[in-house]
């Protein structure tokens, strides 16, 4: 697996260290209820059997919420095994059965099963960490291979007014047009919204949330 880009940061090590802390609720992106994501997912009108890939899950409460809503085919993917272990340890054995756990780098996946063909790709704050063109291209290539025709893509990242760093790493700031351009003509923008997230230390973090649908043919 490729762990480095031109910045020589080992991302796997970085994120494992971040998630080694005990308190997941003090992370700068923690949400009690991930409302903007849940609202956009509801808009997709998916069946409870739909395959949902959450890219860069970390220890997100989105997974608990999706299980609670009855979704049964969830793939939680993260570069950090420690993050996914934290998430796993929160769930009952019964609820864990609705989740496939994949420790992988979305920009160059080695374990992700491309035959899955997912109905929904959900990413809250992975894309903005990809400051390197090669890693951006790797992300897009994975997305194109795994999102089924007619499937949905939700991407939430720091907006143009947003912070320039997150977790000590540089980020790329986006608006909905830039994300649309990044995904290309195959994807129709269905909805976008600006969301002011207040992090656990009280800091303001403006996000842009986008929902796209892939062409069905
Ligand atoms: C800021 S956290 C957000 C976590 C989660 N999406 C949430 O909203 O709570 C970013 C997450 O992306 C993961 N990540 C970063 N780069 C990644 C990559 N190339 N492939 C997979 N996961 C990645 C990190 O380990 C971390 O869990």
Q: What value does the Rg take, in angstroms? A: 16 Å
Average residue pLDDT: 95
Shape: globular
The string of secondary-structure elements, in order, is HHEHEHHEEHEEEHEE
Enumerate the strands of the largest sheet in spatial order, edge to edge or round the barrel.
Answer: 3-2-1-4-5-9-8
Fraction in beta strands? 25-35%
| Parts with pLDDT < 50 across at least 5 consecutive residues | none
Distinct small molecules: S-adenosylmethionine
Q: Can you count the helices?
A: 7
Q: Roughly how many Å apart are the termini?
A: 33 Å
Number of strands: 9
Provide the helix percentage: 25-40%
**Oligomeric grouping of the chains:** single chain
Query: Which structural class do you get from the secondary structure elements?
Result: alpha/beta
User: Which sheet architecture does the biggest sheet show?
Assistant: 7 strands, mixed
Q: Could you characterize the architecture of this molecule?
A:
By secondary structure, this protein is α/β, with parallel strands linked by helices. It is built from 7 helices and 9 strands. It has helices spanning 11-18, 35-44, 62-68, 81-90, 93-96, 133-146, 176-183, and strands at residues 51-55, 73-78, 99-103, 118-124, 147-158, 165-166, 169-170, 187-198, 204-214. The strands form 2 sheets. Strands 3-2-1-4-5-9-8 form a 7-stranded mixed beta sheet. Strand 4 (118-124), helix 6 (133-146) and strand 5 (147-158) form a beta-alpha-beta unit. The mean pLDDT is 95. The protein binds S-adenosylmethionine. S-adenosylmethionine is lined by residues 11, 15, 29, 56-58, 60, 78-80, 83, 105-107, 124-126, 129, 166-167. S-adenosylmethionine (SAM) is lined by residues 11, 15, 29, 56-58, 60, 78-80, 83, 105-107, 124-126, 129, 166-167.
């Amino acid at each position: 697996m490729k762990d480095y880009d031109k910045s020589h940061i080992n991302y796997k090590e970085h994120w494992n260290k971040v998630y080694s802390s005990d308190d997941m609720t003090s992370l700068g992106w923690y949400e009690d209820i991930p409302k903007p994501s849940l609202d956009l997912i509801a808009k997709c009108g998916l069946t409870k059997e739909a395959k949902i890939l959450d890219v860069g899950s970390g220890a997100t409460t989105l997974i608990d919420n999706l299980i609670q809503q009855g979704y049964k085919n969830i793939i939680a993917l993260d570069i950090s095994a420690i993050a996914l272990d934290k998430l796993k340890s929160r769930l009952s054995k019964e609820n864990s059965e609705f989740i496939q756990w994949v420790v992988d780098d979305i920009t160059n996946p080695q374990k992700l099963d491309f035959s899955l063909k997912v109905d929904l790709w959900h990413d809250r704050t992975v894309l903005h960490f990809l400051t390197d063109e090669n890693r951006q291209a790797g992300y897009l290539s994975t997305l194109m291979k795994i999102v089924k025709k007619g499937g949905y893509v939700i991407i939430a990242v720091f907006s143009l007014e947003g912070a320039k760093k997150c977790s000590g790493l540089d980020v790329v700031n986006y608006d909905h047009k830039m994300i649309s351009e990044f995904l290309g003509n195959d994807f129709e923008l269905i909805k976008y919204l600006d969301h002011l997230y207040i992090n656990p230390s009280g800091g303001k973090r403006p996000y842009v949330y986008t929902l796209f649908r892939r062409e069905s043919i």
